[in-house]
Amino acid sequence: MPDISVVVPVYGCADCLGELHRRLTAALEGMGTSHELVLVDDGSRDDAWQVLRKLARDDPALTAIRLSRNFGEEAAIAAGLSHASGRYVVVMDCDLQDAPEDIPRLYAAALQGHDVVFTRRAERGHSRARVAASRLYFSLMRRLFGGAVDPAYGNFSMISRRVADAIQRLGDSDRHYRAILAWAGFRQAEVQVEQAPRHAGESAYDLRALIRHAADGVFFQSATLMRYIVYAGLLWAL
């Protein structure tokens, strides 16, 4: 069992993967811990899979997984977690907006007895419209359910082995990673990080994908909204 597993969903990041692998390896080896890298190709349309195969051939610590088609980031994270065996598991994006050099800080917080370590972004690299939409979404979540994930939190996080195992026992097909961590109830901490510009490429989330992702999050978090829909339907029928 390695000390740290790093799970990375990959989509449209072929030009980032070499630098991501180099920086991850340097950061983890500098910690003096054993590690494994689990990179999941979520049906990328670029050359990501060819790059991953080459990296996996050259580095025995790297496992490359290819999904049969594009299932979405949440499914890729779930696939990566199912293959990660470390005592602690890091989840991060592939575009290097999450800095591998911050992993030692997450690990230090985890060793203080925290099962979930979130990262709070000090800088947001998105447009004003997207930031405003994000705030509206999380405000809706708070109003509907009495609590929600902080919008400043990203997927970049570290979880303990028991949290990773608990997530794998959930039977939901439409998982929402950040909502799961907030809902699960384990001891949590946060680390302040700077969000870097994308190393290469553009975001794979267009407006349609963002709306679908937000809807999945709302319906995963609680059945409250579905109850409102049922009640409205009954009232309309009457």
CA-based shape = globular
Biggest sheet layout: 7 strands, mixed
Helix proportion range:
40-55%
State Rg. 18 Å
Order of helices and strands: EHEHEHEHEHEHHEHH
Strand order of the largest sheet: 3-2-1-4-6-5-7
Mean pLDDT metric: 85
Secondary structure: elements and pairs:
Elements: E1 4-10, H1 17-30, E2 35-41, H2 48-58, E3 62-66, H3 73-83, E4 88-91, H4 103-111, E5 116-121, H5 128-145, E6 153-160, H6 161-169, H7 177-184, E7 188-193, H8 207-221, H9 224-237
Parallel strand pairs: 1-2, 1-4, 2-3, 5-7
Antiparallel strand pairs: 4-6, 5-6
Describe the structure.
Helix content is 46%, strand content 18%. The protein has nine helices and seven strands. The protein has helices at 17-30, 48-58, 73-83, 103-111, 128-145, 161-169, 177-184, 207-221, 224-237; strands spanning 4-10, 35-41, 62-66, 88-91, 116-121, 153-160, 188-193. It has a seven-stranded mixed sheet with strand order 3-2-1-4-6-5-7, with helices on both faces. Helix 1 (17-30) links the parallel strand 1 (4-10) and strand 2.
Q: Briefly, what is this?
A:
By secondary structure, this protein is an alpha/beta fold.
Structural descriptors:
238 residues, alpha/beta, 7 strands, 46% helix, globular
